[in-house]
């Protein structure tokens, strides 16, 4: 009995220590700037710069729900424990960030601590924003406070159940996985490549989606190192954000100009952005200057492949085109491909440039993780809307097909026209079907009030 009592007392003591420590962490590890730090929010040059940096940081895509007001929040993001919703970052005094001083704003963006001293969820890429320089943060503050329309919209509560929904334990996550850091130029890179590294690691926060995460949802690398894990591919909300490294299943088959074109228009002659990346292009990367796009492409193009990963992906001989043209549909999934896919993607799997993405030689098709391919086939998808192309095309959903049918046709696609990819099982399809079924419902009030 004494032993049980002792264990209980120790447990209570540890819990009290953890709670008190969590309250002290934001103060000690993320102290606010001096209250005297002021920003002229009426400086038109500063505001214009801030609009550009907000585009680079992709603030609008995350903080705007489909059909909602810009920056008013409500975008649902699925986690293993439940959905969280982006917050209102318009300058509304009551429901947004209108009462935030620059000190409050900088602390939230770069240190992940709200005005009320509560830690933010790591879905907010403050870990990346830590390296962003002062001038860019100041410009963003001027833009949000002077040029963004204030919207009175309450923030939607998370669906994560208690006790996992308690915020104070997040402070310990910050202490463990959000180190103080700054950007250091690599002397082995060119000036252009270092600018690309600064953008990729910082405001553009490419690693937030493209770097694998650990058991605590922490990014396994925040910059390029010997592990090669930085931007080496990761799955979020059922989408596989592919490797951006110069390896066969990454960007080794892409030219630097392809990367620039993709980020600027959401398409190339072979592929197109879909899922979350389509939103990134539509709201963010299409607004980048050519200088910044080329810097990013130059940096990504020089990233070495991970240890054990081939740089050169070699296609196999194409025996599929001739078989389909000869009416040979004996291969598993071939007949279904003819019935459901060939009209757009053609018998040779080459599609139509900038209209229907190619399946032959498309690195997204034979990526090491087929999650995105499965999800876009199940749920459909829409290309990014940009000024470059007159029309935006939509991939229809094939949710009605059985799991075996989907597995068959996707395996056919991943291993035809010279492609060679890993096997997709019916279990893989069933798992993705559950992801699609449990996608969060975005929050948009029936009537939004926009302040004058």
From TrEMBL:
Heme c 2 binds at residues 206, 209-210. Its cofactor is heme c. Residues 45-148, 191-304, 328-417 form the Cytochrome c domain. The keyword Coiled coil does not apply. Coiled coil: none annotated. Keywords: Cell membrane, Heme, Iron, Membrane, Metal-binding, Repeat, Signal. GO terms for cellular component: plasma membrane. PROSITE patterns: CYTC. It is found in: Cell membrane. Its main location: membrane. Pfam families: Cytochrom_C (PF00034). Heme c 3 binds at residues 341, 344-345. Binds 3 heme c groups covalently per subunit. InterPro entries: Cyt_c-like_dom (IPR009056), Cyt_c-like_dom_sf (IPR036909), Cytochrome_c-type_DH (IPR051459), Membr-bd_ADH_cyt_c (IPR014353). Heme c 1 binds at residues 59, 62-63. GO terms for molecular function: electron transfer activity; heme binding; iron ion binding; oxidoreductase activity, acting on CH-OH group of donors. This is Cytochrome c.
């Amino acid at each position: 009995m004494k032993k049980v009592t002792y264990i209980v007392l120790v447990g209570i003591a540890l819990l009290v220590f953890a709670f008190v420590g969590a309250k002290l962490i934001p103060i000690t590890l993320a102290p606010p700037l001096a209250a005297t730090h002021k920003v002229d929010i009426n400086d038109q040059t500063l505001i214009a710069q801030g609009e550009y940096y907000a585009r680079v940081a992709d603030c609008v895509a995350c903080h705007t729900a489909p059909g909602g007001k810009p920056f008013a929040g409500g975008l649902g993001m699925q986690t293993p424990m439940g959905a969280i919703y982006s917050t209102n970052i318009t300058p509304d005094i009551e429901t947004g960030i209108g009462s935030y001083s620059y000190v409050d704003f900088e602390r939230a963006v770069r240190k992940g601590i709200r005005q009320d001293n509560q830690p933010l969820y790591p879905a907010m890429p403050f870990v990346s924003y830590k390296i962003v320089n002062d001038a860019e943060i100041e410009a963003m503050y001027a833009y949000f406070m002077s040029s963004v329309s204030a919207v009175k919209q309450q923030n939607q509560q998370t669906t994560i159940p208690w006790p996992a929904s308690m915020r104070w334990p997040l402070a310990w996550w910050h202490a463990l996985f959000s180190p103080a850091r700054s950007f250091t130029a690599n002397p082995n890179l060119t000036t252009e490549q270092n600018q690309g590294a600064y953008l990729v690691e910082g405001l553009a926060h490419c690693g937030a989606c493209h770097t694998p995460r650990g058991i605590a949802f922490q990014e396994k690398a925040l910059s390029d190192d010997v592990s090669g894990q930085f931007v080496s591919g990761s799955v979020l909300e059922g989408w596989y954000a592919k490797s951006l490294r110069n390896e066969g299943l990454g960007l080794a088959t892409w030219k630097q100009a392809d990367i620039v074109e993709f980020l600027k228009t959401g398409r190339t002659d072979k592929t197109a952005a879909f899922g979350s990346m389509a939103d990134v292009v539509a709201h963010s990367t299409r607004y980048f200057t050519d200088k910044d796009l080329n810097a990013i492409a130059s940096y990504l193009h020089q990233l070495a492949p991970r240890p054990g990963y081939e740089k050169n992906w070699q296609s196999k001989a194409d025996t599929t085109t001739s078989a389909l043209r000869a009416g040979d549909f004996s291969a598993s999934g071939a007949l279904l491909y003819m019935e459901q896919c060939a009209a757009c993607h053609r018998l040779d799997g080459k599609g139509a440039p900038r209209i229907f993405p190619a399946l032959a030689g498309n690195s997204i098709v034979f990526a090491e993780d087929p999650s995105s391919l499965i999800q876009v086939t199940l749920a459909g998808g829409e290309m990014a809307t940009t000024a470059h192309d007159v029309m935006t095309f939509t991939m229809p959903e094939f949710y009605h097909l059985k799991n075996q049918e989907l597995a068959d046709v996707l395996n056919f696609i991943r291993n035809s026209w010279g492609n060679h990819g890993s096997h997709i099982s019916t279990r893989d399809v069933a798992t993705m079907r559950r992801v699609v079924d449990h996608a969060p419902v975005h929050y948009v009030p029936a009537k939004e009030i926009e302040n004058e």
